[in-house]
Amino acid sequence: MSDIKHPATVAIVGAGLVGCLNAIYFAQRGWNVVLYEHRKDMRLPEEKINQRGRSINLAVSERGLSALRKVDMGLEEIVLGAAVPMRARMVHLGKDTQTSQAYSVHGEHINAVDRGRLNELLLNVVGDLPNVRLGFEHHLLHANLENGTMEFSVGPEKIKVFKTADLVIGTDGAYSKTRSQMMRSMRMQYSQEYIDTAYCELSMPPAKDEQGNDTYALDPNHLHIWPRHTFMLIALPNLASTFFFLFFFFLDHSFTCTLFMPFEMFESINTSEKLLEFFQENFPDSIPLIGTKRLVEDYFANQKGSLINIKTSPHNFKDKALILGDAAHAMVPFYGQGMNCGFQDVEVLHEILDKHNVLPSKHENGKIDDLEAALDEYSRVHVKDTHAICDLALYNHYEMQSAVTSVRYLARKKLEGI
Ligand code: FAD
C-alpha cells in the first residue's frame, strides 16, 4: 500500500436531523463533508412560509442530548434553549379526571422541541463549518457503492449529476434510497411492518390569561395523553417563542396534538358532525381548548400519516456505505425515541471510529486505514440495540393507549412514589 495520503470525503445523503448531526461530527474529525438534501434549504424565507402552520414537535431525551453534548459546540444548550421541559405525563382519564405521572423521582425529564426549528438550528451549525458543503435540491437516484459513485437529480430542471465520495452515509429516512442501493450489493436483512394505527396532527392555540395575554391552555410541563385503549390523543407544548413567531405561527404558547387511531376509524369519521360527536364522547375537555372550527379544519386538512417499523442488519456495506437513523431503523413513535436513537447512532459510530483511530485521509488506492473494521464493529455492536428499541416502541403503543389507565399501573406508580 502506498504511503501517500489524500484527504477523505464523506457524502451524507439526507440533511434531516440525523444527517446534520453526523455532518457536524465528521467535520470535527477533519473529513471533507458533502451533505446532499432532496429538499430546498428550509431556512429560505419562502420555505418557511410553506411550513407555516405545520408544527410537528418531538420529545428529546437524554439519549439524544448525550450525542449533542459530545460535540462540544454548545449544541445541547442551543437545543434546550428551543425546548420546553416535560417533567411528567398528564393522563386525562375522563372529562374532569386527570392524573400526573412523573417521569422520574430524580427530576429527569424529556423536552418538547419543534422538529423544523431543531433541523434549522443544526443546519445553521453545519453551514458555518468550513469543511462542509451543502447540496440542496439533490435527490439521490442511484449509487454504485463499490466505487462510491452517486447519481443525483438536481434542482427543478432535474438535471442528472454524478458525484463521488470515499464513504457514503445514508441518513435519508425510512424510505431510504441509500439503503435500497446497498441492498443491491450485499445480503442485508430487512423487515418492515406497518401498524393499523395512523396519526393526524391537530393544533391547540394559546389561551388568554386574566390580563388578556397569551398563555398555555394546559400545563406546559406535561406530555398530555388521553388514552382510550384502541386510540389516543396526545399534546406536546410548543415554546413560547418570539423572533420566529411570524413564520411559525403555532410556536407561541400552543400545543401540537396528535390523534392516533386505526385507519378505519379515520375513514369512518368523515363529516364534521361525526368528528365533533366523537370528540364529545372521548375527549370532551379538549374541545374548548382546540376550538370546534380549528378542530374540524385541522382534522380534514391534515394528512393521516402511516406508521412503520423497519429493522435492517447489518448497517454497513464494507467500508463503502452505512445507514443511520430512520434509514436503518424506523420505529413507531410511541416511545419518543426515533430521532434520539438516530442521534445515538452518530455518537456510537464516532466512538468506534475513535477507538480504531480512523483518520480523515486515504491512500492513493482510495483505502482508508481501519475504516472497514470500524464499520463492521459498529454493525456488530449496535444493530441489536436498534432492534430492541424498535420492539420497545411497539410495546409502548400498548402502554400509552391502555396500560397507563390500569389500576395496577397507577398503584405501582404510587408505590414508586411518583
Ligand atoms: P428524516 O427526518 O426522515 O430525514 C431524512 C432526510 O433525507 C429528509 O430531509 C429528506 O428530505 C432527505 N431525503 C430523503 N430521500 C432523499 C434522497 N433520495 N436524496 C436526498 N435526500 C433525501 N422521535 C423522537 O426521538 N422523539 C419523538 O417524540 C418523536 N415523535 C414522533 C412523532 C411522529 C408522529 C413521528 C412520525 C415520528 C416521531 N419521531 C420521534 C421520529 C423522528 O421523527 C424520526 O426518527 C427522525 O425524524 C428521523 O430522522 P432522520 O434524519 O433519520 O430522517
TrEMBL record:
Subcellular location field: Mitochondrion outer membrane
Transmembrane segments annotated in the record for this chain: 6-27, 231-251
Keywords in alphabetical order: FAD, Flavoprotein, Membrane, Mitochondrion, Mitochondrion outer membrane, Monooxygenase, NADP, Oxidoreductase, Pyridine nucleotide biosynthesis, Transmembrane, Transmembrane helix
GO molecular function: FAD binding; kynurenine 3-monooxygenase activity
Keyword Cytoplasm: no
Taxonomic superkingdom: Eukaryota
Reactions performed catalytically: L-kynurenine + NADPH + O2 + H(+) = 3-hydroxy-L-kynurenine + NADP(+) + H2O
Record-listed E.C. numbers: 1.14.13.9
Enzyme class per UniProt: oxidoreductase
Cell division in keyword set: no
Role: Catalyzes the hydroxylation of L-kynurenine (L-Kyn) to form 3-hydroxy-L-kynurenine (L-3OHKyn). Required for synthesis of quinolinic acid.
Name this protein carries in UniProt: Kynurenine 3-monooxygenase
Organism annotation: Phycomyces blakesleeanus (strain ATCC 8743b / DSM 1359 / FGSC 10004 / NBRC 33097 / NRRL 1555)
Origin organism lineage: Eukaryota, Fungi, Fungi incertae sedis, Mucoromycota, Mucoromycotina
Gene symbol of the encoding locus: BNA4
